[in-house]
Amino acid sequence: MTHDQLTFTNPVTRFPDITPPKQDQSEPGLDAELIPQTDRGEDSYRGTGRLSGRRALITGADSGIGAAVAIAFAREGADVALSYLPDEEEDAQRICQLIEDAGRTAVRLPGDLADGDFCERVVDEAASALGGLDALVNNAGRQIAVESIDDLDDEQWSQTYDVNIRAIFRVTKAALRHLVPGSTIVNSTSIQAYNPSAHLLDYASAKAAINNFTKGLGQQLAPKGIRVNGVAPGPVWTPLQVSDGQPKEALPEFGKSTPIGRAGQPTELAPAYVFLTSSESSYVIGETLNVNGGTPSP
To answer: What are 83's strand-pairing partners?
Structure first.
């Protein structure tokens, strides 16, 4: 094969350099109403059977990164249970249809992960519906921008921590009743864990806690044959950003400060989750894969 016959994809131009207009959605936000729309791999992701027969619970699976991971998992051969807020039903139904189009089982499990009882229930219902559970992706997150600590009240701080780290602890603990050797847990952390924005104190510090939790639990569960890892996205275009996740005036420049010069699309994150869930990563434990457009990270 000659050089001219090889196909290369320039990562700078593989996806458009978007300039989102100022817009607002009420929390938690919908992919269906986002301008511009995200790319979750609906038309591009091609599976190769890397997760054949796996049974996965993915939180925050209705939109953004979680939706892209759900699509990729299904096309890699996994059955998927989706955890999401009831207000996100429209997005969840769309993702479930794509999972079923791939010939896999999709289970919708709406509820609020800030509720400790739901954290227990969603795991047991996922395992029951899928006939077991051997992959967990803790992806759900809450991000509300607040410019000054003077305006960051106890209620928001608690709500952010309830969803972003306490729910991971609760869901993971419940999942361990079902996970067998060979199972995997992948947690969504963030570039914010290393390089926090001044207006995201609660979100960024919770993401740093996820990193630490991932590394500690990875050591604890490794002898049992259960691997725990994380993925740290950079600026990725999702409904999180327009439902008060970023200051409205910052939206047009979102992601442009990365070395690659653009925001990421959710589908660009999915392969990292597939790798960490597949047996190909059997010697990878307590690792955080940084998928952030080139920003230096530990």
So the answer is: 59, 109
Cβ–Cβ under 8 Å, residues 177 and 160: no
Per the confidence metrics, is the pTM higher than 0.85? yes
Pairing of strands 227-233, 106-110: unpaired
Annotated active-site residue in 84, 161, 203, 273: 203
Residue 182: strand, helix, or coil = coil
Q: Which domain holds residue 37?
A: 28-291
Q: What is the C-alpha to C-alpha distance for residues 193 and 15, in angstroms, rounded to an integer?
A: 25
In terms of Cα–Cα distance, which of 193, 188, 225 is closest to 208?
Answer: 193
**84 among known catalytic residues:** no
What are the pLDDT digits (tens) for 205-217? 999 999 999 999 9
CA 166 to chain centre: 16
Tell me whether residue 42 is in a domain: yes
What's the CATH number where 216 sits?
A: 3.40.50.720
Task: For CA atoms 114, 120, 121, 126, give the dihedral sign.
Answer: positive
Residue 124 inside a domain? The answer is yes
Find the Cα–Cα–Cα–Cα dihedral 291, 292, 295, 298, rounded to 10°.
-40
Q: What is the 3-state secondary structure (H, E, C) of 39-70?
A: CCCCCCCCCCCCCCCCEEEEECCCCHHHHHHH
How would you label 239-278 residue by residue, b for 16+ Cβ within 10 Å and e otherwise? bbbbbbbbeeeebeebbeebebebbbbbbbbbbbbbbbbb
